Amino acid sequence: MAASSEEVLLVVKKVRQKKQDGTLYLMAERIAWGPEGKDRFTVSHLYADIRCQKISPDGKAKIQLQLVLHTGESTTFHFANENSALRDRDAAKDLLQQLLPKFKKKANKELEEKNRMLQEDPVLFQLYKDLVVSQVISAEEFWANRLSMNSVNHSTSNNKQEVGISAAFLADIRPQTDGCNGLRYNLTSDIIESIFRTYPAVKQKYAENVPHNLTEKEFWTRFFQSHYFHRDRISTGLQDLFSECAKQDEKGLKSMVGQGVKNPLVDLQSLEDKALDEGYGTAATPSTSNSNRTVKENSNSAIIKRFNHHSAMVLAAGLRKHGWFSFHDLGDWYFPVGAIEYEDLQQEDGLKTVSLNLKKSDRYSHGPVPIQTQHYTTSQDIINSVILVQHEMANYKPCLTQVMSSTMASSAIVALSPGGVLMQAGTQQAINQMVPSEVQSELKHLYTAAGELLRHFWSCFPVNTPFLEEKLTGHLEEMLQTAYNKFHAWQTRRMMRKT
Amino acid sequence: MASEDEVSLLVVVVDVNPIWWGQQAQREPEFTLSKCLDSVMVMGNSHLVMNRTNKLAIIASHCQESHFLYPSKHWKAGDAAGDDAVSSSRDGKYEVLAVTNDQISEEVRNLMARTEVKGHQTDTLLAGSLAKALCSGQEMKSRILVIKAAEDCALQYMNFMNVIFAAQKNSIVIDACVLATDSGLLQQACDITGGLYLKIPQKSALAQYLLWVFLPDANQRSQLVLPPPVHVDYRAACFCHRNLIEIGYVCSVCLSIFCNFSPICTTCETAFKIPLPQMVKPKKKKLKPAT
């Protein structure tokens, strides 16, 4: 019977299955049916096993629900309650529709993975057909190594690129007039996420206040109303939710400026406006006292400060992975290390190397010409030969009209024509032109299958567990024998075809 | 048709080893060095005539030096052999060819005249000639044809291989026409640079072979039916016996090749330890207590 902890979600009475009356129970993780009057379930299927459900069309007299499992089996339930059959069936169907997707993912993922791999790699697919379908290797063994290999690849490909933050996200909010003196701000979840990533202070405030003190709507209303958000962020002393944020931002800005930019290629400190003379550029002395500043200058500098801060926060948010970040990251990002360091100019590491000590280095210069017994020429022979040639060449005059006789020439032409003495090697066809391509491809498949089996064989070494030993002596023997028989069968079949 | 302004250089390296040719004259008087040079000249002339922009160079590979027969440095215009009844310029030949032939014959005569007999220098300096040939063909599209007579010299192996790889890098094709014994080094050269290797069965028909097989350049060869490439023996020779081996032992320190295993490499004196195969211990069966 059902486990006591299982939650029953729906009970439908008068449901027939295989011409028997009974009751259908939909539980948290499975669907089950028990015949009338009996205590136990005869049919029970986990939602994970169910591939899909089908219903009989509306016009039909019989109101049925069919469950198709992954294995291909199907179970049909006939709702036989005179009054409420249709409603019952629909209720069951709706519940199943909600439940099935939750369980589907877990079971299918592996299967999908396998299917994907088979589809992507035709060689693998062919191997699968040759080995598993013809029952040389069992499917689990085939997938045993492959899935682990691919799970590594998969995890890296899952880290999709994170979408960055648009610098203009605040401006994009673009308030619309409500018609009567109000403003509408359209906040999408993207914008909210951007605000949280860029201004962690605001995120903190949100976490503190919502949903305990304020609703989300109120929070954002206050956000937009506060001077924190407004252009001229002059602290008016009002106890605003966000005045703390403003103070934190000031602090952050000050520390950023304090750290400076660590870029050896650029010296920001020495950049300043230098006026050539009167009338060229600005005056040399910067105003240092705050009291001289006009209101306008103050607000200008405030805007510029906010602007810089905002840009810095946006950039930093892109660099930061989790939680708070250090302003260090910004500096490091800007210059490539290779631009300022040269390996050759640095101190030598002083790695001790062992020098090669060759005793008979002349061996290398001798080519692969085996030492044959040379024709022994006496020095008298040498002298005679040289004198003969000298004699001959002393009176050398080119006689180009009698270089060779026509018989000689024609015999040479015969030797060079196809079929001649020198052209024999060319008539040997390459073996891949003589064998038909389908035989070649079948042979290739067999070869790859044999390679796969060998891979299983070699992966068993070194044999340090009894399981491996067993696998080697028992299982693999069989596999190799089957493979060999297959190959033999193919060979005889091919030979028969030829004759 | 090759484009008008493309200069194509053919460098012919002729093996004029006087010792071999002297012996050859005794073996086969109908094919001597003169005939060989005549055939080379015919081919050179043909090459020059094929295209106005074709260039020719001929190097004689002697056992004492490698000498450019053409173009010659010492040529002076008025120095044609005046004694002859048939002067080269009188038979109506294309001037360039006449001058070429005269230069070649003059240079070869001088070269042979200054040959000194030295017992220990009997090998043709082929590697050096090839190196000179490579240097001369730097600025233009060039190819090298080697006409080989004497046997290979094993001492020139390193230089030879360097020359071959340099030619390959510069896309210079090396062809070989071998008169007597097969040359493994030239087979490798032709295989590596993409040239043609041919050992001719009849020396007297040398001119015909040169014109048929070696006159067309690399581009035109794809459209002709020519002798197929030979199978090259790339086996290495072991350092101990100089036998050509297919499977051997290589020292991991100095890369010298041996045909048999020895615990110490004789070239670099490194000692090697090969672990003995593990003895498989027989399983001890537990004796069941007798009940």
TrEMBL record, chain A:
GO biological process, one term: nucleotide-excision repair
One Gene Ontology term, aspect cellular component: transcription factor TFIIH core complex
Record-linked InterPro entries: BSD_dom, BSD_dom_sf, PH-like_dom_sf, Tfb1/GTF2H1, TFIIH_BTF_p62_N
Domain BSD: 99-154, 179-231
Localization per Swiss-Prot or TrEMBL: Nucleus
Pfam families with a match to the protein in the record: BSD (PF03909), PH_TFIIH (PF08567)
Keywords: DNA damage, DNA repair, Nucleus, Repeat, Transcription, Transcription regulation
Function: Component of the general transcription and DNA repair factor IIH (TFIIH) core complex, which is involved in general and transcription-coupled nucleotide excision repair (NER) of damaged DNA and, when complexed to CAK, in RNA transcription by RNA polymerase II. In NER, TFIIH acts by opening DNA around the lesion to allow the excision of the damaged oligonucleotide and its replacement by a new DNA fragment. In transcription, TFIIH has an essential role in transcription initiation.
Family according to the record: Belongs to the TFB1 family.
Oligomer status and interactors: Component of the 7-subunit TFIIH core complex composed of XPB/ERCC3, XPD/ERCC2, GTF2H1, GTF2H2, GTF2H3, GTF2H4 and GTF2H5, which is active in NER. The core complex associates with the 3-subunit CDK-activating kinase (CAK) module composed of CCNH/cyclin H, CDK7 and MNAT1 to form the 10-subunit holoenzyme (holo-TFIIH) active in transcription. Interacts with PUF60.
Name used for this protein in its record: General transcription factor IIH subunit 1
Record organism: Scleropages formosus (Asian bonytongue)
Gene name as annotated: GTF2H1
From TrEMBL, chain B:
Functional note: Component of the general transcription and DNA repair factor IIH (TFIIH) core complex, which is involved in general and transcription-coupled nucleotide excision repair (NER) of damaged DNA and, when complexed to CAK, in RNA transcription by RNA polymerase II. In NER, TFIIH acts by opening DNA around the lesion to allow the excision of the damaged oligonucleotide and its replacement by a new DNA fragment. In transcription, TFIIH has an essential role in transcription initiation.
One Pfam match: Tfb4
Gene Ontology cellular component list: transcription factor TFIIH core complex; transcription factor TFIIH holo complex
Highest taxon in the source lineage: Eukaryota
GO molecular function: zinc ion binding
Entry keyword annotation includes Isomerase: no
UniProt cross-references to InterPro entries, sorted A to Z: TFIIH_Tfb4/GTF2H3 (IPR004600), vWFA_dom_sf (IPR036465)
UniProt-annotated location(s): Nucleus
GO terms (BP aspect): nucleotide-excision repair; regulation of DNA-templated transcription
Family: Belongs to the TFB4 family.
Keyword Metal-binding: yes
Keywords: DNA damage, DNA repair, Metal-binding, Nucleus, Transcription, Transcription regulation, Zinc, Zinc-finger
Protein's name in the database: General transcription factor IIH subunit 3
Subunit structure, as described in the record: Part of a TFIID-containing RNA polymerase II pre-initiation complex that is composed of TBP and at least GTF2A1, GTF2A2, GTF2E1, GTF2E2, GTF2F1, GTF2H2, GTF2H3, GTF2H4, GTF2H5, GTF2B, TCEA1, ERCC2, ERCC3, TAF1, TAF2, TAF3, TAF4, TAF5, TAF6, TAF7, TAF8, TAF9, TAF10, TAF11, TAF12 and TAF13. Component of the 7-subunit TFIIH core complex composed of XPB/ERCC3, XPD/ERCC2, GTF2H1, GTF2H2, GTF2H3, GTF2H4 and GTF2H5, which is active in NER.
